[in-house]
Amino acid sequence: SSTPPMSPTDKLPDLPPSRASQIMKFGYPGFDNLRTFEDFVLSYDRKTRTAHWVCEHLTPDRMVYVPDIDRSKCDFRPDESIHSYFQSQNEDYRGSGYDRGHLAAAGNHRRSQNSINQTFFLTNMSPQVGKGFNRDKWNDVEKYARKLAKKHLNTYILTGPLYLARKEADGHMYVRYKVIGKSQVAVPTHFFKVILYETSPNNFELEAFLLPNEVIPDETPIEKFHVPLDAIERAAGFLIFDKIPKGALKKVNGKSIGGFW
Amino acid sequence: SSTPPMSPTDKLPDLPPSRASQIMKFGYPGFDNLRTFEDFVLSYDRKTRTAHWVCEHLTPDRMVYVPDIDRSKCDFRPDESIHSYFQSQNEDYRGSGYDRGHLAAAGNHRRSQNSINQTFFLTNMSPQVGKGFNRDKWNDVEKYARKLAKKHLNTYILTGPLYLARKEADGHMYVRYKVIGKSQVAVPTHFFKVILYETSPNNFELEAFLLPNEVIPDETPIEKFHVPLDAIERAAGFLIFDKIPKGALKKVNGKSIGGFW
Ligand SMILES: [Mg+2]
Ligand SMILES: [Mg+2]
């Protein structure tokens, strides 16, 4: 091409940061089978046929209501970027008794029809108990995250499934989870959601939620599901928002923290 | 520096291929937490605290006996390159009833003391039933791989743990496995070993073994554990030796295959 070579003193043009780098500002928990969608980033676990994690970035201006955007135009569909051996299918969920539960919530991605459409890829779904969980308490946690996002400068949300060990009758610890359909999609025992929000420039608060994938009584307050962040990290096998600068995090689960992080 | 710039017509020096690229010649199953050791390559699963897979490359000249190399000088030790949250420890295995079973077999890496030492990192261990499995039938499979390696030009071995679903009394499929120790190291339900060997230049045979992690009667022939390669791939969540050129693979589990692969 005819572009002249840049001299070392030329200033680089100020390109806007990519959406993915905005979303992932505080670190990738891992790099396994990344899917970079228009408005969220996902790492897919080909063994369980659901995600390792999904990361979102919300801001007040992104939370405005766009009347044209219509959830009812969206279809749950397999993600054909994944090798056929490892895809989940709508048929896996049919008759299983589980909802196709969104990890990145559809309601967080209403700025374009393509953004909300992409939340309906089956890579963004996990088998969730419907009534009492997906449609109720888990939805409360999603709504709480949106409430925070409307009030704060930047909100980052990391969401994912977990498969926690329990003590069985023999006194030993076991991981046990159901798998559904021909693709053997794993039914997580729990889901986590970690919300990091910027309350004033470079000051952050974090809330870490861990909920069992089961019917949860409506009267249970969501704060009852606060857990230490490292409980999620150890079970998940990855670190969460580990690039937060030292000292920038002021509160965890509503409690002020000292200089340590 | 004073090195003159290369002109496009200069020939690049003939560097020997890196050991890792030799070992991984037929493709990486994945790139999660790679550990490139002197004589084998490992991908670590921080969630289960054991490997996803381990890959080895053996040749007849590498299988010679070096009398100085001494297995009894080796110590099982934690792999401190892994974040402390996700390491396994010797204490996790103590009193568990399970052996620290090698994935890359110590006996395959006897050309230098450092090579064999590195097979004793706990990242290369999985909890294995000792008598009747690690010390017996699984060892038979390892010895069979070495026998093949002594006879053929190049032998590639991919080994790893699996966690297979089973039907329970309620008619549904479940994955269930024990976890041991404070680190909750997963006890795999099965182990696989896939052996790819070059019988003449660019002609290959493959054998895929899948064994339950349990006492196996001595009289069971190892061929009884042959399975189709895709059975392992689907359960593992990755593809195995998928860079074998079309047509180069002549036999799978002792049976000639057609032009299809
Ligand atoms: Mg939902
Ligand atoms: Mg062994």
TrEMBL record, chains A, B:
Cofactor(s) for this UniProt protein: Mg(2+)
The keyword Cytoplasm appears for this protein: no
Cell compartments where the protein resides: Mitochondrion
Keyword terms: Disulfide bond, Endonuclease, Hydrolase, Magnesium, Metal-binding, Mitochondrion, Nuclease, Transit peptide
Entry EC number(s): 3.1.30.-
Binding site for Mg(2+): N134
Active site: H102
Molecular function GO labels: metal ion binding; nucleic acid binding; RNA endonuclease activity; single-stranded DNA endodeoxyribonuclease activity
The DNA/RNA non-specific endonuclease/pyrophosphatase/phosphodiesterase domain, residue ranges: 36-247
GO biological process, one term: apoptotic DNA fragmentation
Keyword Nucleotide-binding: no
Principal subcellular localization: mitochondrion
Enzyme class, spelled out: hydrolase
Domain ENPP1-3/EXOG-like endonuclease/phosphodiesterase: 37-247
A cellular component annotation (GO) from this entry: nucleus
Similarity section: Belongs to the DNA/RNA non-specific endonuclease family.
Protein name: Endonuclease
The organism's taxonomic lineage, starting at the top: Eukaryota, Metazoa, Ecdysozoa, Nematoda, Chromadorea
Residues of the full protein shown: 50 to 310 of 310
